Every structure is written in structure tokens, then in C-alpha cells.
Description:
- The structure holds two protein chains of two kinds.
- Chain A is built from 17 helices and nine strands.
- In chain A, strands 1-2-3-5-4-6-7-8-9 form a nine-stranded mixed β-sheet, sandwiched between helices.
- Chain A has helices at residues 17-28, 48-60, 64-71, 120-127, 161-175, 187-199, 228-244, 246-253, 255-262, 266-280, 288-295, 298-311, 314-318, 320-327, 357-360, 379-382, 384-397, and strands spanning 9-11, 76-82, 88-96, 104-109, 139-144, 181-185, 204-209, 338-346, 364-371.
- By secondary structure, chain B is of the alpha/beta class.
- Chain B has one domain: Rossmann fold.
- Helix content of chain B is 43%, strand content 15%.
- At the A-B interface, helix 7, helix 8, helix 9 and helix 10 of A face helix 7, helix 8, helix 9, helix 10 and helix 12 of B.
Amino acid sequence: MSHRIVPADPFKVLVPEEEVQDLKRRLQRTRFPNEPLGNEHWAYGTSLPYMERLVEVWRDDFDWRKQEEALNRFPQYRATLTDEDGEDHEIHFIYERGSGENPVPLILTHGWPSTFREFLDVVDPLAHPEKYGREGPAFDVIAPSLIGYGFSSKPRIPIGPAAIADLWHRLMTEVLGYDKYAAQAGDWGSFVTSRLALQHGESLLGIHLTMLPLRPSLKHASQPPVNEEEGRWIKEMQGWWRQEEGYRSIQSTKPMALAFALMDSPAGLAGWLADKYYRLGDTDKTDTMEGMIARFPFDTILTQLSIYWFTGTINSANTLYKAGPAEGSASLKPGEMVTVPTAYSEYPIDTLPITPRSWAERSYNIVRWRIMEKGGHFAAMEEPELFADDVRDAFREMGL
Amino acid sequence: MGAPVPFKIDIPQSAIDAILAKVRAYEWHEMPEIAPGADRWAYGTDMEYMKELCAYWTSAFDWRKAEVTLNHFPQFKATVDGQEIHFIHVKGSGTNPETVLLTHGWPGSVFEFWDVIEPLTHPEKFGGNAEDGVNLVVPSLPGYAFSGKPKKPIGPKGTAALWDKLMRDVLGYKDYIAQGGDWGSVVTGYIGLNHSQAKGGGAKAIHLNMFGIRGAFAPETPEENQWAAAAALNFELEGAYLRLQMTKPQTLSYGMMDSPVGAAAWIVEKFNSWSDRRGPDGSEHIENAFTKDQLLTNVMIYLVTRTFNTATWFYRGMFEEAGTNIPAGEKVEVPTGIANFPKEFMPFPPRSMVEKSFNVARWSSFEHGGHFAAMETKSVFADEVRAFVKQVKAGQ
Lengths: 400, 396
């Protein structure tokens, strides 16, 4: 086993007390906006009563040290990789070795507005299924912070998923010494993972996705015309995006117009991100306050927010939306597709239509297709047990 | 309909101090590296410029001086249909002045018009003819500055109706000419469409420096197609703020209402992108268009009134009013003056297309100036509006 010694620096999350106190002071002097009538269902964006409660809990009740301890529950490292332009990237990652003789290396990649915390509750069940009375495979779990996110470094200029995929491959092979590995992701992580499969397919044992980011070149002769179901789905998706795309639109064009406020105001950061958890999570939208708290307990969402705040990464995280489209890496070239075996599990989001499998098969070698009964966009956080079982089952079915 | 009550701006010192304390305490952070010579605003607001602006803000900028400036003209508040409206009202020189209603947009304020108020009301002080003086009414949009904050979003169509009542019922003007850019051009377009004298309102002509409301006409000529393609691309690059403010203003507001530097960066970015920044030597810089005092006075109007949030509601209000299309079969029949400034970020289509939606009586093109035309070109803008008023008065 060439990967016994990890050629990377051990890492623990430890935020200076001064910064913890500074956060509380900022929260203490938060000045809230007013709210239009009729925002009970977040129709105009993040709810004011929810925000008032969140800020109060963050300031008075939230125990960062306790969450820090939880984040440090698994071994973490930082590895430095130099890219083609000579820039050093420090990659932070959880690395939990799996049980048994032959654990399968698995890299889990989070997205926006999330962090490596998203996977915290599934690391142990994936690494040690026997502890949970589950069949294998067991995994060596690698859960990095995206470049520009959490405890990874900030790039000098934003880099996109194709560039990050190259770094991930080097992390898995050069740093950790694996020849072959599996990958799992949603959101931006699914872009990175899809690029991994396209750029380093020979090393990928299989991938498991909860979002399908690649877009086929529909004009190419190999692509059949869009069928009725796909046409309906595309139209519904476009309608959904018209209502939801504001954040993406600003982050992909003028992230620096937004950055000054979000880097200065923890409440501003929370307001910007909470909307996505509400909208994309499987929250009960009848009682919006209690529904949100039940799905994303304050400890969970505030840990996510605190990681963004303490690392000062909201700006470098948002700029991924500028780098991604600039790289053009989500558009497949004519005839190009992911040949690596791909399992797709869709965690339904109430306002989004279900993806037609025929659409996915234009871009991916789909070997397993599941529409899950519950859990939203942040599945590993929302439904950790279901998520871990599904990932394990998928890779087992792929023969791993 | 309440009678107008005189109004003066007088912000408590504690509010100013609280803002400046946050600006002083701002912790600067990284921004993506910009290659030497490349556009430092390529990712949005340039941090180097924000540092410079904030240094000036906390050391040289004097709100009390700005307040004196802002209190220079007679101001009033009146309640129209339950909405409190703040407005400047200056009587013009001459024996029989026409009345002009000037409407600002986002992220501007009545301050945009500061340098054109005196030349328009009292042209004789600037070497002109007193008989060309006009009465000016310059209101703050609902939810903006010193106007009241509505309980829920009001859009441009609703505002046009409020403005017509303000002009006729509150101020007693029988007729008036409306002018506007940005949201002001949309409000003004609706005034021309729905509140003309022919439709029982008071508007007898309108003047626009941005293409606001329009009929749903597909482009036909090569020039029209070229404009439509450029407008679509421009919307992709510049339209994010609009998409966001039109759908989820509340999501943006927590940061902007808590961070003065954050709000300033969001606003100043627009003053940079939308203005004519060309200097005499051909290089571009925001301060070729505006001084720091002008930028900060405008930003402070949002901050001291705590209206960043409600100002963005106007976009949502437009959305709830179902957009800015002129209904099929209708057009703006009142004489319409068009002022086409070269660096307007949403340029006018070819005249052939504008004429499908408006009764174009005047078309002026300029060598210099952008979206904030009154602020950027001052006398050029004033001369243009005065010339249009004379044209309307002469019945041309």
C-alpha cells in the first residue's frame, strides 16, 4: 500500500477566539431590513422572521467550539499542488480510511453554498459500513474543500471545474497514491466530478451524481431530436430558472459588486445563503419557519455559514460561477460523453421537474437511475442515512 | 390627498456616526487578480477604487455640507393614495412657465438633477431668457430616499398614476411635460401612455433619455436586428442586478442594509458601468463622470434613509405589474422627445423602432454622456430639455 503515509500536512480547524468574538459583535449590531407584506413563503427572498431568529441563535446560543470539535472528528490534511501556471493550491480534505482489506477510494465533492461539512454525517457510514449493520463496500473517504472554499486556498484568479478536476486527480494519484478511485458529488461538485470522468476516465471506477451538469451538443448528428418529455422538462426548467437565477447571474457576471457586503456582514452572508437552503432543501413549505428549522437545524446551517465567515471565502466561492462558464467545461463537444459508469440519484426539489432519463443518457453512461423519495439538494446533510446507503448500493451494483 | 408640507433633511448625528464607524472598521479582502492595464472593474466593483472612496468618505466627505446642498431647493412631502411622496418644487421665471416633472431612477435619486434645476427654472441666470424658465417638480420614487416606504412593492405603472395625481390634484397643474431616464423613463413612458390629456390626465408631452416601455415589436430592418442582438448580449452581461432585484430583493437586502461599504459598492458599480467615463486623453475612469462627493452624496441618501431595500422593490413592482410592454394596438400618442446619449448602457433602438411605440417629435443625439445624463452632462441636458419644452410650447 503506497498510500500509508500521507504526504500532506495534518490539519485541524481552529478559529482564533478573537474571530469568534468579532463575529458575535457583528451579529449584535446587525441592522435588519424591513420586509414586504406577503413574504410568508419567501416569495421575495429570505424571510425576515427567520433571519431574526437565525441571527439571535448564531449570536447567543450557537457553540462554534462544539462544531469545531465535530469538524475535527476525522483526520484532515492540506496538500499543496502547483498548477501549470506555477500557482500553488492548498487543498484541504478529510481523509478517513475505510474498514477491511480493500476499501474503495471515494472522493466526495461539495458545491455552493456548501462546504465539506455537507458530508460530515456520511463519512463514518461510508468508511465503516459494518458499524451500521450494512453490507460493503467500505470506502477510503476523501472529502476536500473546493478551491476557494472553506480551508482550501483562494486562487489568484478564479479557476473552474475542469482545472479543479485536474487537481483532484493529482490529489488522488500523486498525493494519496491511488491508481483507481470512485467519485460522488452534487452541485458544483458534480461539474468537477463530471470533468474528472471526462479528463481522467481511465482512473475512475465509477461516479455517483445527484446533479447532472453536462449539456450535450444537441446539434450533432449523434443526438436524436429532443423528445416530448425532454422538451417539457427543458421548458419547465427554464421557467424555474427565471425565478431563481438572480444569484447565479450576479455571481457569474459581477461577483465583486456583491462581495463587499457579504464579506462585511455575517447577517448579509446568512441572508444570501439561507434562501438557497430553503428553496433547494426538502423543507416543509407549509410552516416555513418550523419547516426550515426541522430540515436544517441551526447547528447545521450555522456551521456551514460559520465556515464561510471564518475563512472569509464567500467571495472566492462565488467567483466559481464566473470561472465555470468562462471555462465552458459543462458543454460537451459533438460526440463527446462520459463513458465512466454513472449512477444518478435525483433527490427531488418540490419546485423542480424530474429529469428525463433519456436526457441524462445523452451525456452519461447511466448504469443506475433512482428517484429518491425524500431529501433535497443537500442530500448528504439532509438524509445522511439514505444517502450513504444509496451511494454504497450504487457502487456495489457496479461491482466495487 | 393631503396638501404639501414643507420638508427639510436633518439626519441625526448618531445615524451618520454609525455609518462612518462601519466604513472605518471595514476589513479589506482579496479580489481576483487583474492583469496590468486590464479593466479593474471586470469582476464588478474595483477594490482599489473602493479603498480610495472609503478613505475619502471617512476623512473628507462632509454629510452636513451635502445636507445643505440637498436642502437648497424647496422640498415638500404630500400623501397621494396613501403613499407619502417627497419632491422638490421650484417655480420658474417668466410670465407663463411650462411645468416639467423630472423622474430619477435606480440607483440614483433626485440628486441626479441637482445641476440642472437652476438652469431650467431660471435660465436668465445662465445667459438665457427668463421666459424659457419652467416650473420643476422632482419627486423621489416610492420607497426611495425621503418618500415613504410602501408596505409592498409599487412599480412604474402605479407610480405614473401617483405622479399624475401629484401634479394635478396636489399641485394643481392643469398640464405638464414629463421627463425621465432609467426607472424615470419607464414611469414617464407610462405617464405618456396612460395619463395624457386625451386620456383625462395632465401630460401633454414626454421626454426620455432611456428606452423604457415599448410595444412588443420584433426587429425588422438590419439595424433593428443588430440593436436587438446587442441588447440581448448586454442584458446577459449587465442584467444580473435586475434579475435579482426583480425576483428576490429580500435575499440581497440583509447584506446591503447591514453594510454601508457593501451598499456603496453595489451602487457605485452601476455609476461606473453605465456612465461615460472617457477623459480628455481617451482613458476611462469613473471620476471623469462623477466626483467622489457626488457619488457619496447619492450613496448616503440611500443609507441615511435606510431605503436600499425598498428601492430595489421597484423592480419587483414592475414584475408584479407584468412588465413594461405597451399593450397591443396602443402607443404613446403625446409628442415624445428622445435624447440619445452615447454611453447609455441600454441604448435606444433605431428611430424606426422607437416610432412604433412613441409619437417621436424630437430626436437628439449627443457626443458625450451616459445613463446619468443630467448629472454627467449638466448644461447639455438642461439645454436639451429646454429646447424640447420650447418646441412643445410652440406646438411643433
